[in-house]
C-alpha cells in the first residue's frame, strides 16, 4: 500500500454527547449520528463558519451504532442493545425490525445496508462480548461475527455468513452484485456475492490493511467506499491471535478490565469496486482519537468516534 497522505483537520465540533460512532451524510450535506445516551442527532452547518446546529431526531432507548438512510425519510439503526431498528425521521417513531436470530437475542448489531429488493443486510460484531467489552472480542479473536439478511416483511433474519472476525462496516457495490464487510479483528475487507455464479460465496476483497477497519460509507453509487480505521495494527495483538484459544481467553479477561486510551494515530481509506485503494489518509499525534466512521459532506470529510464528544471536520482529498 502506498505511503499515506496527510489527513488535515479543519475544525472539531462538540455535539454535547459522547460517542458519535457512525456518521452518515444526507443529500443536503447534513450529518446524522447516534450517541452513547441513545439519541439520534442531525448535525447541520458543520462546514459553516457560523457554527453547527444540533437537532435531536429520536431516542432509541439503547445504544445506536451503524446507520443507513432510506429513501422514505427513515433511518435504519443497528442498536447494540435493541437489535435492528427503523426510525421515522419525521416524528421520531422507533420500530424494532428484528431483535433475535434463531432464538438468540440480537446483541451488538453493528452496520446495515438496504438492498434494492427491500431486504436489509446487517452485521453482528460478536456473539460472545457486548459493546462495552468490544476489546475483549478483538483480543480473544472469537470469530463469532455474522452477516445477516432480513427479508421484506419478515422479523426473522437469516445468516448469510458466520465465523467473521468482529464483523463491522457494510457497503454495497455500485452495481448491487456484492457486499463489502469490514472484519475489524482481521484487518481486512471481505466480499460477499449477492448475484451471479458466485452468489452466496465470500472471498477476501482487501487484505493486510494498515489498521483496523470499522464503519464503511458510500455516498454516490459511483463514488468510493470510505473505510474508517479505528486504530493502527498492533503487532503484539497479531502475535496473540496465533496463540491457543485458552491463552486468548485469559488475555481477553485482562483486557476488558484494563484502562483503555486510544492511540493518537488515525486514518481513513477509500477503495473502489475492484478493491484498489484510491485514497489513504493518516495523521499521527492526533487530538481526535479512535476514528470509527467517515463520510463526505460537501468538500470535507466528517469523522465520527466511539471515544470522542464530537466530530472532526477534515480536508477531503483531491479526486483522482
Largest sheet geometry: 5 strands, mixed
Classify the secondary structure makeup into a structural class.
mainly beta
Total of helices? 3
Strand content: over 45%
Number of strands: 27
Helix share, percent: under 10%
Cα Rg: 18 Å
Q: What global shape is seen?
A: globular
Examine the secondary-structure arrangement and name the CATH architecture. Answer: 6 Propeller
The helix-strand sequence is EEEEEEEEEEEEEEHEEEEEEEEHHEEEEE
Mean pLDDT: 94
Q: CATH H-level name... which superfamily?
A: TolB, C-terminal domain
Q: Which fold name is given in CATH as the topology?
A: Neuraminidase
CATH class: Mainly Beta
Characteristic key phrases:
5-stranded mixed beta sheet, 4-stranded antiparallel beta sheet, 27 strands, Neuraminidase, 320 residues, 47% strand, mainly beta, single chain
Amino acid at each position: 500500500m502506498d505511503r499515506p497522505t496527510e489527513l488535515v483537520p479543519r475544525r472539531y465540533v462538540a455535539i454535547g454527547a459522547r460517542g458519535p460512532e457512525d456518521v452518515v451524510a444526507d443529500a443536503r450535506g447534513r450529518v446524522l449520528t447516534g450517541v452513547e445516551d441513545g439519541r439520534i442527532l442531525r448535525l447541520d452547518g458543520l462546514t459553516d463558519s457560523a457554527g453547527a446546529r444540533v437537532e435531536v431526531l429520536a431516542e432509541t432507548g439503547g445504544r445506536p451504532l451503524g446507520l443507513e438512510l432510506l429513501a422514505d425519510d427513515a433511518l435504519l439503526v443497528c442498536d447494540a442493545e435493541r437489535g435492528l431498528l427503523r426510525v421515522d425521521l419525521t416524528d421520531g417513531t422507533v420500530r424494532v425490525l428484528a431483535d433475535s436470530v434463531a432464538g438468540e437475542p440480537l446483541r451488538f448489531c453493528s452496520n446495515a445496508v438496504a438492498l434494492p429488493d427491500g431486504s436489509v443486510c446487517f452485521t453482528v460484531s460478536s456473539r460472545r462480548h457486548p459493546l462495552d467489552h468490544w476489546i475483549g472480542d478483538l483480543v480473544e479473536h472469537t470469530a463469532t461475527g455474522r452477516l445477516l439478511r432480513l427479508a421484506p416483511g419478515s422479523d426473522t433474519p437469516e445468516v448469510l455468513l458466520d465465523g467473521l472476525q468482529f464483523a463491522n462496516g457494510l457497503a454495497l457495490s455500485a452495481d448491487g452484485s456484492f457486499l463489502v464487510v469490514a472484519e475489524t479483528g482481521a484487518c481486512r475487507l471481505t466480499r460477499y456475492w449477492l448475484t451471479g455464479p458466485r452468489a452466496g460465496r465470500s472471498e477476501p476483497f482487501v487484505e493486510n490493511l494498515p489498521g483496523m477497519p470499522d464503519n464503511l460509507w458510500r455516498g454516490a453509487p459511483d463514488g468510493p467506499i470510505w473505510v474508517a480505521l479505528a486504530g493502527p495494527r498492533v503487532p503484539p495483538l497479531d502475535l496473540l491471535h496465533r496463540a491457543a484459544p485458552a491463552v486468548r481467553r485469559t488475555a481477553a479477561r485482562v483486557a476488558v478490565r484494563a484502562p483503555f486510551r486510544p492511540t493518537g494515530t488515525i486514518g481513513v481509506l477509500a477503495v473502489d469496486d475492484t478493491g484498489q485503494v484510491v485514497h489513504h489518509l493518516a495523521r499521527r499525534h492526533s487530538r481526535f482519537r479512535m476514528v470509527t466512521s467517515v463520510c463526505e459532506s460537501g468538500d470535507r470529510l466528517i469523522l465520527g468516534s466511539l471515544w470522542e464528544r464530537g466530530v472532526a471536520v477534515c480536508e477531503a482529498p483531491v479526486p483522482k
